[in-house]
Amino acid sequence: MKTNITPSYIDEILRGYLPKNRDKVLQAMEYSLFSGGKRFRPMLLLNTAKAVGGRIGNNAKILAAALEFVHTYSLIHDDLPCMDNDDMRRGMRSCHMQFGEASAVLAGDALLNLAFETALQGPMSNNAYRAACAFLFKMSGIEGLVHGQSLDLFSETKNVDDATELAVAKTGTLIRAALVCGALVGGASEDEAALFDEIGCKLGVCYQIIDDILDSKKCERSFLDVYSEKDLFDHVLYLNSEIDKICDRLPYDLEYIKEFCAKNIARQK
Q: Span 46-54, mean pLDDT?
C-alpha cells in the first residue's frame, strides 16, 4: 500500500507522541504545533528514508516527530519579545500572545525536551539510528539553531557571506537534519549522507532567500541587504541547478527534492 506523505499524515504521527495531560502548557504546545505548518521538514525526512531504504520505517517516523517538535519549539521562542518580538505566526496570534510569555517559554522548553524523549524511544543500539539522533540534536544546538539565533540577534549582515552563514545556521540546520536523518535511517552510507547534507545546506539558503523576498517589508536583516531581488532569484536558480547535480550523483530517485526546489522558488508565502 502506497503511503501518501502529507501534512495530515505527519499530524497523525505527532499526536501519537504528545503527553496526555491537559494543562496550560500542553495547550500552548498543541496550539503552536497544529497551527497550519507546512510540515516540509518531516516530509523531507520521510521521503528521504523512503527513497534510500524503499519504505518508511518506524525509526523514520520517530525522528520526523522529534524534528517537528524541535522546529515548533524554535518558532515559539523566536517569536518571544526578547527575540524577534512577533505578535503573529501563520496568520494566528503567536504563542506568547495567546497564552502569555511564561507559558510560551515553558511550551518551547517542553517541546525541545519532548523531542529528546521521542527520539529515545528508538533503537539507540542501532549505529545508524544513533548517528541520526546525534546529528538532529547537534543541528538543534550551539552548532545549529542556537548559533543561528545568536547571529540573528547579535551580528550584522555586511556581505553575502554573512547572509549565507545566517541562512545555513538558522534555516538550513533543520533541513540538513531532515535529509541526513532520513538518509541514515534509510541505510545510506556516510559518504551519501554527506551529499544529502550538502543538499540541505543549499536548500536552506534557497528557502531563506525566498523568505527574505516575501518578507522584504518586515525583515530587519536579510539577503536583500547585500543583493538585489533579481540577483537573488538568479542565485536560487543557480543553487537549484547545483542541487540537481548532487541529486544525480546519488543512486536514488530524488525527484521529490527537485520538486521542492521548484515549489520553493514559486511560493507566494
A: 98
- 170-46-27 Cα angle (round to 5): 65
Dump pLDDT digits (tens) for 70-111. Answer: 999 999 999 999 998 999 998 899 999 999 999 999 999 999
Mean pLDDT of the chain: 94
117 in helix, strand or coil? helix
Parent domain of 145: 7-266
C-alpha cell at 156: 550584522
Q: Provide the whole-model pTM.
A: 0.96
Within a domain: 1: no
Q: E-strand spans in 60-102?
A: 88-89, 92-93
51 within 8 A of 196, measured Cβ to Cβ? no
Locate 79 and state its grid cell: 517569536
Residues 21-34: pLDDT tens digits? 889 999 999 999 99
Per the structure, the count of domains in the chain is 1
Calpha distance 136→147 (Å, rounded) = 14
